[in-house]
Amino acid sequence: MDGDDYQGRRVSVRDIGARKQAEAEIQRLAYSDPLTGLANRRQALERLGQALAASDRSAQWGAVFLLDLDHFKKINDLLGHKHGDELLRKAAERLRSITRRSDTLARLGGDEFVLLAEDLATDQERAAQQAEAIAAKIRSALAPPCMLSPDAAPIEMTASIGVTLFLGEAADREALLRQADVAMYQAKNEGRNSFRFFDPEMQALLERRGALEQALRQALVRDEFELHFQPQVDRERRWVGVEALVRWRDPRQGLIPPMQFIPLAEETGLIVDIGQWVLDAACATLSAWSEHPQARNWQVAVNVSARQFHQPDFVQRVRSTIEHHGINPRHLVLEVTEHVVLEDIDGIADRMHELSNLGVSFALDDFGTGYSSLNYLKHLPIAKIKVDQSFVRDITSDGDDAAIVCAVLAMGRALRIGTIAEGVETQAQHEFLLAQGCDEFQGYLIGRPMPAAELLDFLSE
Fold first, then answer.
1. How far apart are CA 19 and CA 25, in angstroms?
2. Is residue 443 helix, strand or coil?
3. Which of 15, 113, 135, 405 has its CA at 20 to 30 Å from residue 3's CA atom?
4. Are the beta carbons of 34 and 26 closer than 8 angstroms?
5. pLDDT at 203
6. Torsion angle, alpha carbons of 286, 288, 293, 299, to 10
């Protein structure tokens, strides 16, 4: 074939280098965290799947470490996102410096990192010891103060670490991450800057907590709450009022004590809606009692949580509820704790005075258990101090408790603030409190909490 045979033909040469480079970049973005350059959640899950298979073949244990930087949100909010991002990059660098070649280090998102350690040991106890050593290395790597910029103060970097062990493919990838997450939150709840191994009992506890939270949300919708009222009497045992106490009557479990659901309601924010329900129900009861010959002059005390009190529209909600039920505001007492007062004393004072001018009065609950201060008692419209039952319980046998109660009662007299003791259960406690000048009393000696109808029947006995 001579050269003429090639005349008229076209030869095209395509440069595929750019395409391969683009494909590589797409692959990198799909499996990498853009901020730190570490593996992302997707790659971490794939590597964990491979590690489970390898563990099945080798019969060697592995471990998943989930760590969350302590107080990162505060640092991010205080110094700004730029410094927050720099802190995450510094954390990634330090963690990368202590990982082995066979380990996988990834950023799951936010300030959460995961470290996958393989080939620890064939014995579970030995594997746990090695995992403990790795957790200690993580803490040590993060410990030195971190400079985010030349003109910024050094930042202390610590982490809460959750650890779970695995062996073979019987484990589930997402389940392992959840287990490590549970352990991490246990470390955080127990003081931070520490690590905890996953405890199956804690997992069961969290599952029960989740079920309780869901049921609690439904309880509001299904109107499963009810009020019980505990009587309060003066020095002559005359009824002067009641405290409204919320109860939850679950259709399956029956009556659930407040200590089982109020802390959860506080954590989840449901306490705001529950608190409003209590306020509304208490005012409705006051309205119903306005025609009763004995109950019409009672005061009804309602507990107000810190989260509820700090709602921007709290004052308006109280005013609207009073107007809706047409009650005398002087019959409504709002009980707040020292914790509520101390969070923002100036803002709290304005709200309390606004409601006090409306006619509502305030009682300071659990007095003596927090940061008791004469200063805020002078500046806030507090009508009553409630002596906490933890002091009342042993006043006849514990000299320290007796001294605290006497001091609180003396302070109330000096400041012309009424005093009421809660948790009065014995005649001896009542006589001691009477002798020390306590104004009012509440407790099982006087009467147990009961529904409104039973309360009126109890009164007529």
1. 10
2. coil
3. 15
4. no
5. 63
6. -10
Cα–Cα distances in Å, from 208 out to 79, 214, 248, 264? 38, 10, 17, 12
Question: How, if at all, do strands 382-387 and 112-117 pair?
Answer: unpaired
Angle of helix 81-97 relative to helix 72-79, nearest 10 degrees, comes to 140
Percent of the chain with pLDDT over 90: 60
Q: Is 59 helix (H, G, I), strand (E, B) or coil?
A: coil
Question: Which residues of the chain does CATH 3.20.20.450 include?
Answer: 209-460
* Residues 446, 241 contacting (CB under 8 angstroms): no
Which residue in this structure is represented by tokens 């589930």?
A: 172
- Token pair, residue 18, equals 């750019």
Please give the Cα distance from 274 to 303 (Å, whole number). 11
24-198 CATH choice from 3.30.70.270, 3.40.50.300, 3.30.1330.10, 3.90.1200.10: 3.30.70.270
Contact 174, 58 (CB under 8 A): no
Tell me what percent of the residues of the chain surpass a pLDDT of 70: 90
Please choose, from the candidates 414, 406, 413, 407, the residue with its C-alpha nearest in 3D space to the C-alpha of residue 433: 406
Q: How many CB atoms lie within 10 A of CB 293?
A: 7
Contact call for residues 157 and 79 (beta carbons, < 8 A): no
Helix-strand-coil split of the chain, %, nearest 5: 50, 20, 30
CB atoms within 10 A of CB 219: 22
Instruction: List the one residue out of 409, 445, 408 whose CA is nearest residue 424.
Output: 445
Are the beta carbons of 386 and 335 closer than 8 angstroms? yes
pLDDT-derived band at 338 (thresholds 50, 70, 90) equals confident
Count CA within 13 A, CB hemisphere, residue 21. Answer: 4
**CATH classification of 209-460 is 3.20.20.450, yes or no?**
yes
d(CA 459, CA 461): 6
pLDDT at 371: 53
Element of type H or E holding 57: helix 41-58
Strand positions, DSSP E, 95-212: 104-109, 112-117, 159-166, 195-197
In this structure, which amino acid lies at residue 412? Answer: G
For residue 293 the two structure tokens come to: 């010959």
Q: Which residue is associated with the tokens 């107000």?
A: 304
Q: 303 is written with which tokens?
A: 């507990």
Rounded to whole angstroms, how far apart are CA atoms 88 and 73?
Answer: 12
